[in-house]
Specification:
The protein is α/β, with parallel strands linked by helices. The chain folds into 3 domains: 71 residues, no CATH class; 128 residues, Aspartate Aminotransferase, domain 1 (Alpha-Beta Complex), CATH 3.90.1150; 246 residues, Type I PLP-dependent aspartate aminotransferase-like (Major domain) (Aspartate Aminotransferase, domain 2), CATH 3.40.640.10. The protein is built from 20 helices and 17 strands. The strands form 5 sheets. The chain has a 7-stranded mixed sheet with strand order 4-12-11-10-9-5-8, sandwiched between helices. Strands 13-14-17-16 form a 4-stranded antiparallel sheet. Helix 3 runs parallel beside helix 5. The structure holds pyridoxal-5'-phosphate (PLP).
Length: 471
């Protein structure tokens, strides 16, 4: 055993020999000497472990270079989102408008007047960059921006209800994707949760009965990712605002997604806009930057000046603040809302939501034959009507009519084969993410805009691991 191993060792080239090859020199140019030496050692060690007896130094250099190339691929890869969920939290939610991308790029490359009043040459406030726009578009007196909407809710609760009570309806104690649970956020913020009403019905008198000297605020939460239907009752924001103000406590409305425009114009069901929530009398309104707003990950808080000033004085604000890159993207996105008629052209979220099925049919005409040719006889590739959804807890029940490429095994043995195929598609250079529904792999075309890129990406389909599913 020992002897055989030593013999194999002798039959492998030395690290120096491998490093002298042209392929190794190329690797050094691309990845640096120390990384290349480490990769060569790795390639030799693997051969030794396999008991290999090759003297081919060039082959080891090529193996080392291949592994360096593999390691150099980014972990955060672009993917084709063909899930049918436009704002997919696990795929990064909103795609940014070109104007936002440009603004963020400029901010990355340059010093910017982030907290610097160019008029007076004095220290300024970073929120001032977007405050006027936010106030103009929402009708609020003042506004501030933090890391995300979860942070916005945390900051509001901690500032207005620490050591006090926050009144919430039992029908609105939401959980948003695991880590964000309203009762949890409350306790982290140091607020005592005062639940009122029942899961399906909460009345004005329930709120009224809970208000006392310890009340910090009343919180209304938009049940953005579920609907309670049937025998239900909730107290509207306007009525709740009147009650809150009668008792001199603030009403906070967590809108979740929040939109600045009426999305009914894109064929979706009307969602309350931020301006509506402000007009209904909420003292503070919180919403996300990367849901229907269509910008970078941020949390907005808009509302009364005196309250926003309090939030800005909380030390937590500093921990939750937004960097210059996102602020730049945010400002550029906000500016697009000044021309709502052209939003669907400029803002990818609305462009994708508003995309007519006719346009998807044109995409399908190119994608179906390309996929069919690659997948071969064992698969049936057809178009099928399907439903897209907005995602990210916006409009949970509403769907958009859409079009998918439905891929079904031509013979028997469905389930396993479908999983293998979807696995294979996720391993393409630009991973393709679809969804399995019933007996088909559906590739919803709503978010497929780069059709040429999609087809070129299929070139390596047969040479992939797991491609026996394609045979
Ligand atoms: C999505 C959502 C949140 C959390 O917002 P993030 O921006 O994801 O942090 C909070 N409240 C509601 C009602 C939501 O829909």
């Amino acid at each position: 055993m020992q002897k055989a191993a030593t013999a194999a060792l002798r039959r492998l080239p030395s690290v120096d020999e491998v490093m002298r090859t042209a392929a190794a020199e190329g690797a050094v140019a691309g990845f640096g000497r120390s990384a290349t030496v480490a990769a060569v050692r790795g390639a030799l060690a693997e051969a030794r472990a396999r008991g290999e007896v090759s003297r081919d130094a060039e082959a080891f250099a090529l193996a080392a270079r291949a592994s360096l190339e593999q390691q150099a691929r980014p972990n955060l890869k672009p993917v084709f989102n063909l899930t049918g969920t436009v704002l997919h939290t696990n795929l990064g939610r909103a795609l940014l408008a070109e104007a936002a991308v440009e603004a963020a790029t400029i901010a990355m490359r340059n010093a910017v007047a982030l907290e610097f009043d160019l008029g007076g040459g004095r220290r300024g406030e970073r929120d001032e960059l977007v405050r006027d726009l936010l106030c103009e578009l929402t009708g609020a007196e003042d506004a501030t921006v933090v890391n995300n909407n979860a942070a916005a809710v945390l900051l509001v609760l901690n500032t207005l209800a620490k050591g006090r009570e926050a009144i919430v309806s039992r029908g609105e104690l939401i959980e948003i994707g695991g880590a964000f649970r309203m009762p949890e956020i409350m306790s982290r913020a140091g607020a005592r949760l005062m639940e009122v009403g029942t899961t399906n019905r909460t009345h004005k008198k329930d709120y009224a009965g809970a208000i006392g000297p310890k009340t910090g605020l009343i919180l209304k939460v938009h049940t953005s990712n579920y609907r309670i239907e049937g025998f239900t009752k909730e107290v509207g924001a306007r009525e709740l605002a009147a009650l809150a103000h009668e008792h001199k406590v603030p009403l906070v409305n967590d809108l979740g997604s929040g939109t600045l425009v009426d999305i009914a114009r894109y064929g979706l069901k009307h969602e309350p806009t931020v301006a509506e929530a402000v007009a209904e009398g909420a003292d503070l309104v919180t919403f996300s930057g990367d849901k229907l707003f269509g910008g970078p990950q941020t949390g907005f808080i808009v509302g009364r000046k005196a309250l926003i000033e309090k939030l800005n004085k909380n030390a937590l604000k500093r921990a939750l603040r937004v960097d210059k890159i996102r602020l730049a993207a945010l400002e550029a996105t906000l500016r697009l809302y000044r021309d709502p008629d052209r939003l669907a052209e400029r803002l990818p979220t609305y462009r994708l939501l508003a995309r007519p099925v006719k346009e998807l049919q044109a995409v399908a005409q190119r994608v179906v034959p390309a996929l069919a040719a690659k997948l071969g006889q064992r698969w049936s590739v057809k178009t099928a009507p399907c439903s897209s959804q907005v995602g990210s807890g916006a409009l949970p029940v509403e769907t958009l009519p859409s079009l998918a490429v439905a891929i079904v095994p031509a013979g028997r043995g469905g389930g396993g084969l479908l999983k293998a195929l979807s696995n294979t598609l996720r391993k393409l250079p630009v991973p393709v993410v679809g969804r399995i529904e019933k007996d088909a792999l559906l590739l919803d075309l709503r978010c497929l805009e780069d059709v040429d890129g999609f087809i070129a990406n299929l070139a390596t389909l047969t040479s992939l691991e797991g491609s026996d599913a394609l045979a």
